[in-house]
Design a protein that fits this description.
The complex is a heterodimer. Chain A is an alpha/beta fold. Chain A has a single domain, classed as P-loop containing nucleotide triphosphate hydrolases (Rossmann fold). Helix content of chain A is 31%, strand content 27%. In chain A, the strands form three sheets. Chain A has a six-stranded mixed β-sheet, sandwiched between helices. A four-stranded antiparallel β-sheet of chain A has the order 2-1-4-5, covered by helices on one side. Chain B is built from 13 helices and 24 strands. Helices cover 25% and strands 35% of the residues of chain B. Chain B folds into two domains: 298 residues, no CATH class; 53 residues, no CATH class. The two termini of chain B are 26 Å apart. In chain B, the strands form three sheets. In chain B, strands 5, 6, 8, 9, 11, 12, 14, 16, 17, 19, 21 and 23 form a twelve-stranded mixed β-sheet that branches. Chain B is globular and about 65 Å long. The longest helix of chain B has 18 residues. The chains are: A alpha/beta, B alpha/beta. At the A-B interface, α2, β7, α3 and β8 of A face α10 and α11 of B.
């Protein structure tokens, strides 16, 4: 069994079934891509895995570290080592990125405001941020800005990856991290993610387009169409999609081009 | 952790600030209000004839004026049940050793002497009706800065006092300014000479200890040309089941090119009616800033005002209100433009929780011929649950076409998306909510001296913890 096992997951949003029995297994050390056209259920999958309250799980389970994730609050999942890089990160006015990162890191380390020895020291915090901020080309002024407030699309995505670098998850779900990124940003972001790859990290890249997969090579590619995984395989699956798009499943709704050459976002 | 714990609200209020000492006094007026009581207060203080007369005249105005009904519900105030004057000690201390032990212990528990040692240039501590302790850094004294309790100022600076007292807020301004003028006691008197900058804040701490007490401090601040001062006030009281009344009057004169900042962290216990009139007159190129935080009290009605008297004058109100169960914070600000080329901003942030109610009430008034006036009003309300209430009463009266006035208002709830985002990073829900609330009032917090900002965030956290589970 894989470290992170999604089993027959059914999810509804406002009474409508979006995921109709998704199963896949991801282990640490691996990178999987979930590809699918618009409306296939990609965002539903990522939000459900993290525990967004707007998604109703009607059947299935998600096993990680011997527990069913679906029974846990989002913050409990995060502290277990699950991370979601958001497609549309939320603005939180008045809370600085530095405060946010420190609070999140302390939570991950089990600091509950009492045992000070568990809290990260300012020096340690600085040291931890230095390298990923360099890789992501972010300067110090970023830390005193409020969470995602006034961030450009690229800054938001880079901030998501910075948080990932700081929190060091075991399973990272990247929800359309490549969308809205210019070519430079996509390079920095990929570079940062690649530098985190290793035996302790499993990555689930959720994407419409193949572009990011040129920078981060997946071990396994799953094709999600209409709420079900219709094919899984090696990187050749992505190559095939690059050529033919989702046309093979054209009778399914919202099949669309895969190559990002037409992307206008 | 910071050392200024006087602004706590919520769960630990009873333990930290809600305690009371056995009542000891050298003089206590009998319950209720009458000409006799007013004469007695004036006689006790050995005041000049003109002040006694002013008090009596104000009493008649108070009796004549109807209770205001346009704001919070004041119908349950029983003026006959209140003690209007209580003197706890004969003499005012210049060092804490001179303050009676039990009173000193109270201020110790509230962290006042410690704050004084660490980051204040001068401190006044008022207990019931009288200021029991007063200090000012020597170098400021040498520069001619006057920082006294208002009673002493009347004795020692009679001319300066008479020139300004009651000129910014006359007794007849409203029912409670009349009441204050009739029975006022204590408060701060500050004079900053021309060009003198008081770079470290001065602080006053107001403490009510006795039950059914009325506290009526009177503050007068005069910033002479080109000067600067930052004055901070804090206040707490024990928790009683019956009501107390705090009704202060604060008058400020900011002369040409001067700047005054007045910061309030109001944290009365929830049995206190807090009905305060605060007003400043700002002259040419002068700046007046009210930083007004209201966390405690049962009912607060307070609208710090600036009269912009000459071109270049600038007025600023930054107001935060937090209303929990049974509380109504009716707060806001007033900007009265009586000269051209004047600017004002009012920023109001309110948080309502557990059925509490916050109201923003504000007025921007532009007199005829006051062209090139700019004014910006922004009020944001945050509701933490469905039973809490927020309302907004923004008034604009403008008699001049060539002005630039803007008003923005928002009401929001802690959003699911924000909570989910913070929780997805491992931050538990209660902590995430606190972060969002503290972020919401960040524009206020960042204007506070660091020690107060840290403490305020901690207090919000305590309050929020009380709201979960």
């Amino acid at each position: 069994m894989a470290d992170f096992e999604i089993k027959d997951l059914h999810v509804s949003v406002e009474g409508r079934e979006i995921l109709r029995g998704v199963s896949l297994g991801l282990s640490r050390g691996e990178v999987h891509a979930v590809m699918g056209p618009n409306g296939s259920g990609k965002s539903t999958l990522s939000n459900t895995l993290m525990g967004h309250p707007g998604y109703e799980v009607t059947a299935g389970e998600v096993l990680f570290g011997g527990r069913d994730l679906l029974e846990l609050e989002p913050d409990e999942r995060a502290r277990l080592g699950v991370y979601l890089a958001f497609q549309y990160p939320t603005v939180v006015p008045g809370v600085t990125m530095a405060n946010f990162l420190r609070t999140a890191l302390n939570a991950r380390r089990g600091y509950d405001g009492k045992d000070k020895s568990k809290a990260i020291s300012p020096r340690e915090f600085r040291a931890l941020l230095k390298e990923p901020m360099q890789t992501l080309r972010m300067d110090d002024s970023f830390l005193s800005r409020y969470i995602n407030e006034g961030f450009s699309g690229g800054e938001k995505k880079r901030a998501e990856i910075l948080q990932m670098a700081v929190l060091k998850p075991e399973i990272a779900i990247l929800d359309e991290t490549d969308s809205g990124l210019d070519i430079d940003s996509i390079k920095f972001v990929s570079e940062a993610i690649n530098s985190m790859r290793g035996p302790d990290l499993g990555v689930l890249i959720i994407t419409h387009y193949t572009r990011i997969l040129q920078f981060i090579k997946p071990d396994v590619v799953h094709v999600l169409v209409n709420g079900q995984v219709v094919r899984s395989g090696g990187s050749e699956v992505a190559d095939a999609l690059e050529r033919t798009g989702y046309a093979e499943w054209a009778d399914e709704p919202a099949a669309a081009a895969v190559s990002d050459s037409k992307e206008v976002r | 952790m910071a050392v200024v714990p006087q602004i706590s609200v919520g769960e630990d209020y009873r333990e930290k600030y809600g305690f009371f000492d056995p009542e000891k006094y050298v003089f206590k007026a009998k319950r209720g209000l009458s000409e006799e009581i007013v004469r007695e207060i004036s006689w006790m203080k050995g005041e000049p004839e003109w002040m006694t007369e002013l008090r009596l005249r104000s009493l008649r105005i108070f009796e004549r004026k109807a209770m205001p009904t346009w704001g919070a519900d004041l119908s349950r105030i029983d003026f006959d049940n209140i003690f209007y004057y209580l003197k706890s000690t004969e003499k005012q201390g210049k060092s804490w050793d001179e303050v009676p032990d039990d009173i000193k212990r109270t201020f110790d528990r509230l962290g006042v002497p410690e704050a004084e040692r660490k980051f204040l240039a001068g401190v006044a501590a008022q207990y019931e009706s009288e200021v029991v302790y007063h200090s000012l850094h020597q170098e400021l004294e040498k520069k001619g800065v006057v920082f006294l309790d208002t009673d002493t100022a009347l004795r020692e600076h009679p001319d300066l006092f008479k020139e300004y007292f009651g000129t910014i807020i006359p007794p007849a301004d409203n029912k409670f300014s009349a009441l204050n003028t009739a029975v006022w006691s204590g408060g701060s008197f500050i004079y900053v000479p021309k060009g003198v900058r008081v770079d470290i804040p001065l602080q006053a701490y107001f403490r009510i200890n006795a039950e059914n007490m009325g506290q009526f401090e009177r503050t007068l601040i005069i910033c002479d040309e080109g000067s600067f001062v930052h004055y901070i006030e804090g206040c707490t009281a024990p928790i009683y089941t019956t009501d107390s009344l705090h009704s202060a009057v604060v008058e400020i004169v900011v002369k040409r090119g001067a700047r005054c900042r007045y910061t309030t962290i109001q944290n009365w216990s929830t049995n206190v009616y807090n009905l305060v009139t605060k007003r400043a007159a700002a002259y040419g190129d002068a700046t007046m800033e009210w930083v007004d935080g209201n966390l405690g009290s049962q009912i607060t009605m307070k609208y710090p005002s600036v009269f912009l008297m000459e071109p270049g004058a600038k007025g600023d109100v930054l107001s935060v209100a937090f209303a929990g169960r049974g509380q109504h914070q009716d707060a806001g600000g007033k900007m009265v433009h009586v000269a051209p080329y004047t600017t004002s901003t009012i920023t109001s942030k309110s948080i309502s929780k557990a059925g509490g109610r916050t109201s923003y009430r504000g007025l921007v008034k532009v007199h005829p011929n006051c062209h090139d006036v700019k004014s910006f009003v922004k009020c944001d309300a945050l509701l933490l649950d469905d039973e809490s209430i927020s309302d907004t009463y923004p008034y604009i009266e403008c008699d001049e076409p060539q002005v630039n006035l803007a008003h923005e208002a928002t009401v929001s709830k802690v959003s699911d998306e924000q909570l989910f985002y913070l929780q997805s990073r491992g931050i538990p829900q209660a902590e995430a909510e606190t972060m969002i609330v503290n972020g919401f009032i960040e524009p206020f917090t960042k204007e506070l001296p660091l020690e107060y900002a840290v403490e305020l965030n901690r207090l919000i956290q305590l309050e929020m913890e009380g709201s979960v589970g």
